[in-house]
Amino acid sequence: MHVLVTGGAGYIGSHTVVQLKAAGHEVVVVDDFSNAKSTVVPRLEALTGGRLEVHAFDLTDRDKVEALFAEHKFDAVIHFAGRKAVGESVEVPLEYYQTNLDSTFALVRAMQRHGCFRLVFSSSATVYGESATPPFTEDLPTSATNPYGWTKVMIEQVLRDVARTDDRWRIALLRYFNPVGAHASGTIGEDPAGIPNNLMPYIAQVAVGKLEKLSVFGDDYDTPDGTALRDYIHVEDLAAGHLAALTKLGSTDEVVSTWNLGTGHGTSVLEVLRAFEQACGHELPHEVVGRRPGDVAASYADASRAERELGWKATRTIEDMCVDQWRWQRDNPLGYPD
Ligand code: NAD
Ligand code: UD1
């Protein structure tokens, strides 16, 4: 298939591009590099053994999106592009609503106009809000606790409404749990700007000596070791889930399908820390501090629908995730070069 990947220079997009090319798809990337470095592109080309067509523009620019669709005949779109920092979304909500919604509007309009009806959208487990009890099933009501999360809830709704207008649409809403890890080559991975907010990149930077110690946010949760449980999923398993969803959209009769992409298993903060210590071969300094506001005790998927309907299942363990995250961090202590 001829596939447009928006946000294809980013963390999850880049890993998905590699798998798409390996599966024989023709790939075009749009990314404005607002949260990616251009040096990812030659690395992707090295991994895929060919030139990658990349268009550097902001997807909210309707004319540019339209021109791209006029130039190419896409069979499908995987839409990763968007802003994703929860804390920042609270500070600049309008930027989040505008970028995430407008880019989706521009894309979906162009898809409609050019007869491209297959769309895979990056949603998030954040749409389960604060009140649900895990494991989360796809039919739970959705809500959010911050503007970033609301953009996902809203875009899901927009896409459900659009799908109802034309039965040629085939849309996958993929709700990711906690993507971590990196490609086994150690040449692509997550490269957060500034101090990481998320656990795995934070631990990795402690391991490489960039940060002094991990703060464990709370050890008084009602969980086996008192620290919070999350469903960490290897980014390679996640990327494979996109290929499975893309294939399924070719045969399903549903106009909109929602699939959780997780392992179905919760891992505690201290378990992640121990697994990372094993991977990097030394102890990592840490201290327990208070809970982070807004955190829930446990979040993990009921991953059975994806397994049943997509024939997809995450296979990599937390140990695999830490080994691959560590290789990427060790080989690229400063992330991608400028
Ligand atoms: P990322 O920031 O690494 O990738 C997003 C890419 O989109 C970046 O390369 C960025 O430069 C690009 N981009 C942003 N705004 C754009 C615009 N207006 N026009 C063109 N390009 C634009 O993030 P990621 O971790 O790879 O996440 C990909 C998607 O998955 C996002 O939609 C995110 O919300 C969603 N998601 C991520 C996580 C996670 O923990 N990483 C969890 C759930 C959902
Ligand atoms: C974060 C996002 C969420 C997103 C999810 C997907 C926030 C507030 N939420 O959630 O919207 O869908 O990623 O990847 O950013 N922890 C520490 N010390 C740290 C960092 C984290 O103890 O320095 C703990 C957290 O309290 C949490 C766990 O580690 O219990 C995982 O945290 P994180 O990686 O930020 O993911 P989420 O909280 O699940």
Automatic annotation (TrEMBL):
One GO molecular function term of this record is: UDP-glucose 4-epimerase activity
- Keyword check for NADP: no
Q: Which Gene3D superfamilies match?
A: NAD(P)-binding Rossmann-like Domain, UDP-galactose 4-epimerase, domain 1
Provide the catalytic activity annotation.
UDP-alpha-D-glucose = UDP-alpha-D-galactose
Concerning Pfam families, the annotation shows:
Epimerase
Pathway in which the depicted protein is active = Carbohydrate metabolism; galactose metabolism
Q: Which family does it belong to?
A: Belongs to the NAD(P)-dependent epimerase/dehydratase family.
For this entry, the protein name equals UDP-glucose 4-epimerase
The species this protein was found in = Pedococcus dokdonensis
Q: What is the lineage of its organism?
A: Bacteria, Bacillati, Actinomycetota, Actinomycetes, Micrococcales
